[in-house]
Amino acid sequence: MDFNDTPEEAAFRAEARTWLDANAELLSPDESNANLLDERDDPDTIQSAKDWQKKKADSGWACLTWPTEYGGQGKTSIQSVIWNQEEARYKTPPNIYGIGLGMCGPTIMTHGTDEQRQRWLPEMLSGVKVWCQLFSEPSAGSDLAGLRSTAVPDGDDWIINGQKIWTTGAQFCDWGILVVRSDANVPKHSGLTYFVVDMHSPGIEIRPITQINGGQGFNEVFFTDVRIPDAQRLSEVGNGWAVAITTLMNERSSIGGGGGGGGIRDLIELARSVEVDGKPALEQSGVREKIATFYTRTKGLKLTGNRSLSALSQGKTPGPEASLGKLVGARLAQEMAAFAMELQGAAGALNDPDASPQAAEWQDRYLSIPGLRIAGGTDEILRNIISERVLGLPSEARADKGIAFRDIPSGPPSN
Amino acid sequence: MNFDFSDDQKFLQQTARDYLAEHSPLSACREILETDKPYADDLWKGAAEMGWQGAVIPEEYGGAGFGHLELAMIAEEVGRSLAPIPFASSVYFATEAILNAGSDEQKQKYLPALASGELIGTFALTEKAGQNSIENVEAQVSGGKISGVKFPVVDGDVANFAVVAAQGDGGVSLYLVDLEGQGVERETVKSFDPSRSMARLTFDGASADLLGEAGQGAALTSHLLDRAATLMAFEQLGTAQACFDITKEFTTGRYAFGRPIASFQAIKHRLADMWCEIELARSNAYYGAWALSNDEDELNVAACVARIQASEALEQISVEMVQMHGGVGYTWEYDCHLFYRRAKLLAAVLGTPAHWKDKLIDRIESASAD
Questions:
Q1: What chain B residue is nearest to A81 in terms of C-alpha separation?
Q2: Where are the beta strands (DSSP E) in chain B?
Q3: For residue B13, what are the domain limits?
Q4: Minimum CA–CA partner of A4 in chain B
Q5: Domain end marker among B163, B181, B213
Q6: Any chain B CB within 8 A of the CB of A330?
Q7: Which of B51, B76, B108, B247 has the fewest CB neighbours in a 10 Å radius?
Q8: What's the gap in Å between the CA of B283 and the closest CA on chain A?
Q9: Last residue of a domain, one of B193, B213, B233
Q10: Per-residue pLDDT tens over the stretch A117-167
Q11: What is the ipTM of this complex?
């Protein structure tokens, strides 16, 4: 039992570092790279992200786990993790390729025709084209298969109408993966079809959504008589759900890996610097008890991640248990932010980087974290996944089973 | 990254699990709980034949010469089966104390008999209710004779000897005291979990043999508690896993409103949360085992996070076990209370989670001051 790289892993890490040293600048300890969801990136930032991806692709550091026939490097999952760990230590532009390379690419590899793979994968890998995901709708989030946007055949094309929501990066994307309803007369999972849509098509309108933290990472995307050639259909007609599942499994493995829980060092530092009853807060038993709990859980999450990495290193595939990191981590991060604000007393009510302790970092986190608990599977969906897929418990009874989609009760309109 | 037990260690664990499934079903725990018998002596002998008591004792002293990773695997199975034997007292405490601080003579005297199970040892620190600190122990040693009261002492009524913390010889020190000799009175005290026995030890001039350096009792105890807490975390982990598995099976088989109760999110979401708590406990326990087996300084933090998470997870899951069983969970006949009792006993006897949390902050602070 140890935390060390195997000799092969260490050699690979050294190779990655050598390339990164030559091509990027190390982050200083108090620096971090910008989060994609924080702001609306300007064209220059997007271009710099594209340049970075191109550079990696040209040197063989893009899509490490993809098969070589699609331009990947055919590396193992653990090598990909090692690369990500190393890349994260350097100053890099925001990653605008996570959805494309992590979710769209693997789905196209699994379900696309040879022609479709050749058409889309090389430009996805080199970063020339950016991809987004058009799944959720205003009335279909956790219950994704309840979506209502429609596809109607018209000659060799399909005509799409409806609305998608929570689309990250739609404003700068070239292609999107899209699930829509092609038949409302069959049960909901059986009437879906999966397409790839050109985001520059006429009839697509993109509107930013302003989050509670003021950021605008997400969009609403409206489709009005948008035409998609049948050659861009990725599933059999009516079999879109099976393909969507492939995409979602890849989403969980990419999002579930990290988990929140950061910031324990900052929290301890804060508790040393603010006073309670004339003494550092960290000397007070209630404060110590809370922080020790946070520390214990933060450690537990990180070590659980190390156990998953060990499985990867042994060539095993981590399964849905990766959901633990996000489920526990997001709640923990929220509790820590709430407690940090409480420690600040009345100053907890400020959100002023110049006046608040630790530059109002905790206030920012408190406003951002609710998104973490919802995106990519809500806490509640993650508990379903754990209980059904990890623990094998029976599924919840459903009121919509075996009923044609058009007859499923839907409640009053939400707006 | 290889943060996992080896195949050989997992094989040893499976062997232990199979042995205990046969020789220590829950009915064995119940028998000790319901009778005056303090522990399962046949099982104790069987365990010794399997080499468990001597797992980390070097072969030259009659042990199996394994490491702490192997012992951790055995501890998890002891916990899973609720084995009613004084394993923790004799192995995590007495044996560890002698291995760490004993003179060669003391090792010769005790270790072979500990390994064979002929001797049972325990650790006597606490003297009264409340959170006692080692610096404030009142038991006194003078001229090699100990006087004072230790209460409560786990397995104090069945142990042949105890490692006792007392004032004397230049401050608090540790001593080996023969509990069957002159000047020792022992009284069984009713245990919250009668499958594990508890006692009051009264010393009046009993012979006390210094263990380790004089005046080093606080440091030795602190280190001993870290080692024992890490091993105990595995025992708690095994108990928590058993609790969880039984509850999962019960809720899957029990029907209400026309379907298994485990299909209701009111149940299944809590089971998912319980599973997360066990996985965190497992990860932290592994961290402790890594630090313990490599003699890392980090053990002082690893033991804390292992102990805290194991204690809290086990308590939460044992409470949920009773609740999810409904009415039958509250009966003497069902086994839920065996776990409910054991969870609370294990959380109490080695310093409560609150105590370990306080210790954790101290240690983080002193590490950052270095």
A1: B1
A2: 121-124, 140-142, 145-154, 161-167, 172-178, 184-189, 198-211, 255-256, 259-260
A3: 7-115
A4: B1
A5: B213
A6: no
A7: B108
A8: 5
A9: B213
A10: 999 999 999 999 999 999 999 999 999 999 999 999 999 999 999 999 999
A11: 0.96
